[in-house]
Amino acid sequence: MSRVHYLEGDYEQLVINETIDGLFSSYRIDRNSLPKGFFLYEIRWDDSLSSLAEISPSVVVNHAGSFITKSPLEFDANNSIRITYTNFIEFCQFGEWAYEKLAVLDCNSGNVAVISPDRRLQTTEEIEIFLSGHCGYHLSEINWMVMKGDVLFLNENDF
Questions:
Q1: Within 10 Å of residue 115's Cβ, how many Cβ atoms?
Q2: Do 127 and 121 contact (CB within 8 A), yes or no?
Q3: Assuming Cys at both sites, which of 8, 33, 53, 73 could form a disulfide with 4, CB separation 3.0 to 4.6 Å?
């Protein structure tokens, strides 16, 4: 089976063994297509093809899918991690999971926008170039912050 570029995959956020967070795709993702700072592993089905059995650097037989993480995994002596627990969280796009979101307050209108960049922005300068160049904001008219998770908007009726 051929491998696909990571942007062609369909993803579901998956937590394995309660501590390993990543993105699962049933596609065979091309390791060389991933951006720097992400790690690709593969997951194997058990012999009955009914449960996810283990994570390893690569799988040939009983391939269930690819698994992308933000940090490297440590394997046992068999070069694998046995899967004892799985929790599929939600379907999402790679960029939604991979990169922190930006909350942008438009000081003129009071509107707040939540933006999911398509790449990792590491410095204030990179973020401001992205907001002004890619999103068209005038930096003197906004306040912004890096955020994780979701935003909950409240109004006076919520109190």
A1: 18
A2: yes
A3: 8
What is the distance between the alpha carbons of residues 59 and 66, in angstroms, rounded to a whole number?
Answer: 9
d(CA 12, CA 24): 5
- pTM score, two decimals? 0.69
Token pair of 77 as six digits? 């002596």
Q: Are 27 and 63 in contact (CB under 8 A)?
A: no
* CB contact at 8 A, 26 and 83: no
Q: Where are the alpha helices (DSSP H) in the chain?
A: 94-98, 124-129
Among the listed residues 99, 117, 112, 121, the one whose alpha carbon sits nearest the alpha carbon of residue 151: 112
Query: How far is it, in rounded angstroms, from Cα 153 to Cα 155?
Result: 7
Q: What is the mean pLDDT of each run of 10 residues along the chain (159 residues)?
A: 87 93 94 92 93 94 94 94 93 81 88 80 84 92 79 56
Place of tokens 């160049």: 133
Q: Could you give phi then psi for residue 142, rounded to 5 degrees? A: -135, 160
Amino acid (one-letter) located at 86? T
pLDDT of 11: 94
Contact between 117 and 102 (Cβ < 8 Å): yes
